[in-house]
Amino acid sequence: MSSLRPLIPLLVAAAILLGGNGLQATLIALRGASEGFGPTVIGFVGTAYFAGFLLGCIFVVRLMRSVGHIRSFATLAATAASCTLMLVLVVDPVAWALIRFMTGFCFAGLFTVMESWLNSGSSNSDRARVLALYRIIDVSAVTGSQFLIPLFGPGGFTIFAVMSMMITMSLVPVSIADRSNPKVPDEVKLDLRRAWAISPLASIGCISVGVTNGAFRTVGPVYAEEIGLSVTDVVTFMSLGIIGSALVQYPLGYLSDRWDRRMVLLLTTIGAMICSVAFLFLPGEDRFLNFALVFVFGACAMPLFSLSAAHANDRAGKDEFVLVSAALMFFYSVGAIMGPYAASVVMRIYGPHALFGFTALIYILFIGVTVLRMGSTPAVPAERRRRFVMMLRTSLLFGRLARKADGPPQG
């Protein structure tokens, strides 16, 4: 544990930022609805966030190369904290979209800086433990921070001030970290054509998951509020989806390491589709049924990105893991840009339950693609399958940390 001590400040900063980022996603939907913004406006604001996030992933390495890790982190954190306060000072749909675009850019940059720092500061023997801690922090911080909303209330200035303070306080552990300025990583090279050639199924899967998960995270709170759930229940609803995902990822990964991974991907997608269809017939006033179903939905829907990435890595060459990881993250982000607004338009026309009609349609299309690919290409032999890796959708650099931590293919 002593060898990990220099990285503890970075992991603390990661907890603060991951919590603040997860908190904003739910709060923006709730506060926007209370300000009279319709689902399409909230969906467009979510789309703007993911557009900024994608650009941040691509361009932040240039900033790091110019001014280093610490100054990049300070610049992005200060900007993100200011943007958070601007949300409550300027309550306007266009302003919110622009602010969220900038916030997405900043958070993508902050996660990239941290993951580059963790990768540089971790020895080969410690990297797996660092990665495990980072994953635990992600789930715990995002889930726990949601409950600040009912504590402070979504209305007024206080909750936005708390979020701004969280982002600002992330500067403290970074500023006192022992490792001052590690080597800046090489720029992320995106070879989308090569990634598509390696696995069209994984590429389509990540776009599909981006569409559905982006829609759920952005307008899921709107669905929960419009069916009559209280603020505390809305937060619980969103948190249970995250918890379901966290508990099931590794059992699914274990199975996919031993079966044809596409079969696990197919069955999990069918599970997500069935849950989506079930939501269409669920009594809105029964909160416990909603809680139970969203838990199962999260358990099926959220791991699809990691399963798709694992399938692509099975087919990738020895030195193509990072290339594939970055490209699939790009595909996911493209889907996440499209999903929130498209889902919000459907909700405006057909009502809140249409969110899950929309996701069910996307899953049905992906199921069709999966069946076609399984019928046209052979499975990857067991000896060539790499170990399953739970992939976080935080930056294009996460694949570098994950690949070094999880080792070579099974044999």
TrEMBL record:
The keyword Membrane applies. It comes from the Bacteria. Coiled coil: none annotated. Residues 198-411 form the Major facilitator superfamily (MFS) profile domain. The chain crosses the membrane at residues 41-61, 73-91, 97-118, 130-149, 155-174, 195-215, 227-252, 264-282, 288-309, 321-343, 355-376. Keywords: Membrane, Transmembrane, Transmembrane helix. InterPro entries: MFS (IPR011701), MFS_dom (IPR020846), MFS_trans_sf (IPR036259), MFS_YcaD-like (IPR047200). PANTHER family: MFS TRANSPORTER, TRANSPORTER MFS SUPERFAMILY. This is MFS transporter. It comes from Mesorhizobium liriopis.
